[in-house]
Amino acid sequence: MMNNYIKLLEIKGLILTYLKPLTAKEIGFYGIFGVAGSIIAQSYGGWSPAMTLLIILMGSDYITGILASLKEGRGIASTASFWGLIKKGLMLLSVLIAHHVDIVMNTNAVMIGSIYFWYANEIISLAENYGRLELPFPEFIKEKIAMLKGKEKHNETVK
């Protein structure tokens, strides 16, 4: 019993060694980010697992795109990265607008539909990046992506 108490005191000492009290500046800094995060989450109707997956897909696409560019020897172009981030921001803006359309229409379908649309977009982009990185990807998914790209090219020529 006494050994457990001594071990707890040792652990407490280790924790206090690595933790220091926050300064007023740090508290203010963290507080601002906490409030901003709360406002953003509330503007999307609260944070949902669907939004979490979208953010994960967006981050994965961005990272694999950078890795693919590095592998191809193109380096990291700051303008391409900038416009990639702008695109991600506009995707989130469309989800935000869809949420507010849902509020006005008293539904929950527009935001979820928007999120699912962006899921598909990000998964296709991830597959392309995997191809550029020469990573294995299921053949049937490659075929579906090629089919979608064929329809996309056909739609562009019809315009």
UniProtKB/TrEMBL annotation:
User: Pfam families given for it?
Assistant: Phage_holin_4_1 (PF05105)
Compartments (UniProt record): Membrane
Q: How does it sit in the membrane?
A: Multi-pass membrane protein
The similarity comment for this entry is: Belongs to the bacteriophage holin family. Cp-1 holin subfamily.
Protein name from the UniProt record = Holin
For this protein, the record's InterPro entries field holds: Phage_holin_4_1
Q: What is its main location?
A: membrane
Give the residue spans that cross the bilayer.
Answer: 27-44, 50-70, 90-119
UniProt KW keywords: Membrane, Transmembrane, Transmembrane helix
